């Protein structure tokens, strides 16, 4: 019999003992410990250190993450293996493709690989290409935490800005002059990191621009959480395909492995059925034997009644209507789950993924009635929010806050990292595997000291149930997609035609309250009766009711097999203000100081700028952070002399 692996995580009693032994203060720096404190191994677990209070200490996240090690033991196992494979690439090989499930740590791995190559003298520059503006900023911040200063590209000079090790640019920015500007950077030995490279196949122009921009790079490290097939996709440079048209990856780390390694959390799917009623004049005309005239025929069905695709779409329209019974009850049940979880995880949050913008506004009103708090509504609106700056600010504020719910129309999917998301409501008609798995990926990120299953409430539509079963049974992240499906899943306003024409005369009439249909976890389906019985057993044992679905297999077998302890995953390191943000702040401060000095001295601002140039300071657009700081000090001295 294979022995149980050594327990890595300190249990609640041991954490309490470490906290009390430290008098509630960090053993390293002495500050008062916050709820996010780390129970740390003095002798590293990876080096054989036991998980015991005699080998434990209470540390704040900063001290724990600063501790580090002298080798790769602070990387996750999959990250070490990928690094080892990259380091033994055959001479002349420049491309390496990594597929890793969302939440596994692709960004950290790629930046560590970049740092190693710089330390080895193999490269001098790093360029990161990402699909969105939000990810451009996110990568620059993460790089700063790894000791790399990368400039988010906003102006042409940002591609090779002095004082930075490299840049972060979007695939869109490579169109036109961007490709040549990045190509110029790669004249020096450069690693180009291609994040979510499947996006380069969205249009032929993106792929062609990427080919020109990165073809001279010393190394190209491509990342994806979405393995794909070639099919009708535009050509994607720097990748290879097998005979079946599936992309060949050099290293794969899938969702099942991530769960087994306690890198990603488990997710439960709670499926809800309900009766929907609607009218369909077009169908009524086809089926009516009566003469000319208007015929109104009502249709009614439940999601599990073997409907065709058009009827499923009509039923979902009725269920998703905010004024009908189904969605208010779904949101109320989801909020009860969130209430229960927030007793242990005070900042745990919920996400509602919507079909249309008016749905989102309606759900936000329902949530406000349920909770007394109005949630942010995040939508794509090019007219009111060109560039998505408002949406990004909403997501950032929610990520760093303690709000309960956020409502989005397909804006919080791929690449958006909000680790405190724990409860989700899927209210979208999009039923492609890509979009569904992207939504699932928002809930699988783990944080230190948290031990629970995320939950996603879904309609009991056959396609969604099939996707949920595939994830839970196979625990894989391999997707077969066509370009048309990708575009449909990312439509700007979030509407989906689901096989219907643009003119849709069907009218949703009503929907019943949701009826719990089944829970899906670990490849097993649990009935409502089983979940209810497990909930009663939880109450008897003093276990939180949110673990009821986990208990169902134990009740079935009558064997109480101890649950495996999840791996401790450190929190993101708290770092100083990233270099690119300091540069922006300094530019703004200098502009303010120039205006203030000009007013006090009776001068024009342009004359003050001229004096700065005469004093030896470069133009602000060309200045490094250090040069901007020197200019700031000069202005402060001038003001003190007035």
General description of the model:
With 642 residues, this protein is an alpha/beta fold. It contains 21 helices and 22 strands. The protein has an 8-stranded mixed beta sheet, with helices on both faces. It has a 7-stranded parallel beta sheet with strand order 5-6-4-7-8-3-11. Strand 21 (515-521) and strand 22 form a beta hairpin. Helix 17 (528-541) packs across helix 18. The chain is globular. The termini are far apart.
State the helical fraction: 25-40%
Q: How many beta-strand segments?
A: 22
Beta-strand residue percentage = 15-25%
How many alpha or pi helices? 21
Structural class: alpha/beta
* Rg for CA atoms: 27 Å
Uncertain parts: 475-505, 558-575
Structural shape: globular
Q: Which strand order does the major sheet show?
A: 16-17-15-18-19-12-21-22
Mean pLDDT over all positions: 79
User: How many angstroms does the end-to-end distance come to?
Assistant: 83 Å
Largest sheet composition = 8 strands, mixed
């Amino acid at each position: 019999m294979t022995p149980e692996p050594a327990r890595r995580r300190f249990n609640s009693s041991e954490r309490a003992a470490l906290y009390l032994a430290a008098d509630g203060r960090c053993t390293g720096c002495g500050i008062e410990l916050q709820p996010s404190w780390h129970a740390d191994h003095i002798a590293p677990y990876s080096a054989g250190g036991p998980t015991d209070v005699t080998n434990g200490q209470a540390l704040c996240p900063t001290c724990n993450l600063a501790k580090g090690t002298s080798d790769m033991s602070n990387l996750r196992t999959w990250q070490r293996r990928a690094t080892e494979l990259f380091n033994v690439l055959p001479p002349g090989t420049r491309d390496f493709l990594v597929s890793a499930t969302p939440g596994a740590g692709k960004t950290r791995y790629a930046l560590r690989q970049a740092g190693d190559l710089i330390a080895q003298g193999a490269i001098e520059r790093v360029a990161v290409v990402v699909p969105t503006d939000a990810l451009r900023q996110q990568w620059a911040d993460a790089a700063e935490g790894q000791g790399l200063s990368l400039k988010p590209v906003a102006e042409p000079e940002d591609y090779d800005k002095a004082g930075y090790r490299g840049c972060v640019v979007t695939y869109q920015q490579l169109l036109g002059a961007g490709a040549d500007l990045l190509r110029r950077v790669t004249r020096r030995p450069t690693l180009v990191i291609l994040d979510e490279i499947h996006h380069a196949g969205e249009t032929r122009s993106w792929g062609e621009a990427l080919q020109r921009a990165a073809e001279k790079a010393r190394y190209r490290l491509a990342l994806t959480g979405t393995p794909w097939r070639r099919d009708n996709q535009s050509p994607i440079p720097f990748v290879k395909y097998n005979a079946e048209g599936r992309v060949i990856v050099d290293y794969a780390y899938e969702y099942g492995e991530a769960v087994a390694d306690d890198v990603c959390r488990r997710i439960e799917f709670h499926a809800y059925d309900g009766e929907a009623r609607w009218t369909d004049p077009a169908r009524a005309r086809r089926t009516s034997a009566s003469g000319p005239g208007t015929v109104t025929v009502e249709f009614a069905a439940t999601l599990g009644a073997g409907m065709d695709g058009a009827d499923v779409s009509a039923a979902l329209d009725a269920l998703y209507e905010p004024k009908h019974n189904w969605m208010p009850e779904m949101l109320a049940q989801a909020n009860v789950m969130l209430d229960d979880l927030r007793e242990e995880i005070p900042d745990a949050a919920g996400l509602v993924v919507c079909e249309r913008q008016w749905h989102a506004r309606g759900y936000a009103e329902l949530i406000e009635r349920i909770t007394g708090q109005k949630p942010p509504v995040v939508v794509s609106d090019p007219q009111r929010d060109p560039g998505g700056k408002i949406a990004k600010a909403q997501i950032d504020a929610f990520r760093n806050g303690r709000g309960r719910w956020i409502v989005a129309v397909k804006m919080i999917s791929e690449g958006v990292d909000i680790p405190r998301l724990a409860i989700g409501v899927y209210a979208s008609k999009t039923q492609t595997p890509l979009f569904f798995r992207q939504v699932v990926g928002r809930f699988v990120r783990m944080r230190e000291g948290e031990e629970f299953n995320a939950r996603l409430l879904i309609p009991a539509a056959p396609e969604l149930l099939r996707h949920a079963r595939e994830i839970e049974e196979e625990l894989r992240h391999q997707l077969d997609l066509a370009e048309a499906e990708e575009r449909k899943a990312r439509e700007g306003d979030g509407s989906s035609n689901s096989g219907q024409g643009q003119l849709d005369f069907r009218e949703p009439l009503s929907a019943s309250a949701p009826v719990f249909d089944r829970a899906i976890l670990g490849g097993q389906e649990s009935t409502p009766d089983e979940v209810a019985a497990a909930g009663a057993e939880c109450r008897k044992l003093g276990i939180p009711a949110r673990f009821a679905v986990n208990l169902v297999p134990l009740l079935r077998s009558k064997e109480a097999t101890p649950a495996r302890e999840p791996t401790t995953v450190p929190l993101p390191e708290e770092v100083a203000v990233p270099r690119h943000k300091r540069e922006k702040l300094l530019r703004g401060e200098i502009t303010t100081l120039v205006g203030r000095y000009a007013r006090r001295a009776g001068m024009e601002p342009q004359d003050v700028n001229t004096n700065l140039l005469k004093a030896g300071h470069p133009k602000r657009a060309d200045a490094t952070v250090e040069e901007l700081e020197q200019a700031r000090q000069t202005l402060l001295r001038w003001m003190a002399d007035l």
